[in-house]
Structure prediction request, 325 residues.
Amino acid sequence: MIRSTMIRSFCCAAAALLGIATGSAQAALQQQLSISTPSGTRDYILAKSPNIAAGPRPLVIILHGHIGTAANALGGGKTPSPLSAWLNIADREQLLVVALQGLKGSDNHTGWHDCRLDATEDPTADDVGFVERVVNGLVQAGRADPHRIYVMGMSNGGMMAYRLALEMHPTPAAIAGVSSSMASQTACGQTPPKVSVLLINGTDDPIVPYGGGKVGLRGYKTGTVIGAEATRDFWLHTDGLADVPGIAYSFPHLSSSDTTRASKVTYGPNSGPQVEMVTIQNGGHIEPSLIYHYGWLYHQLVGTQNSDFESAEEAWSFFKDKRSK
Prediction:
């Protein structure tokens, strides 16, 4: 959630120093599409395997962060997001992946109308309605399975994923929020459905504080969140898992130069509802990745990136057994 021209310029300079490791070929085909909404024409990218099986397929919605783009989330530009690993997953698992494009808010940067009442820079469009139109179009065309709709978002996109869990119809079977938490002052409904939720949060996130508080960087902060653990507890209560003991797991540490450590606790059965919390000790506002490694200057701005697992692969492992009613 960054506003000033100075910070934006710093981000661009940092992006130029990203180091992206090579991975397997991303064979999923991408198609630029648009759809009419009451807020005007909205854009999105549909990615799928060139040999995708006939009939309704699982659908994964990808939501970029503040200042981001759908194209960057799926590997476009000089600095592809770790979320672009979904292209490999789409091809391997025969999925539909849709990356949606946010609109510009009052700060002239792209973003999403999440649940935070006090995030005045957010756009005011009906983003829930936008997502529903895209999803329902694919469902009605017989391309997407309405019981296997999943959402993954980064930062402001993660906050929007929480809004979709609360308000979207059809209800997602599962969502994943990276470097994000739920609103302290919420504009969203208070009778949430049961949804499986994956949280991935760094304890040293300088933008979305792990323990809750104002969101933003350095001198500019706007909107408040309840924090990662409080968000986990909200969904544990909602999903009827508040008294269920969690199963802990520590990811193997793969790099001696990586000062972070990744672990997770999983509550409930794989079939859902289920809550999983991945905590990155010393981790920043950045997606963990085995393949897409950000450079040192970017780390100076947003904190340290964990390199022990691939965020998109962890999300798919969490999503794949989940079904909505």
In short: The mean pLDDT is 90.
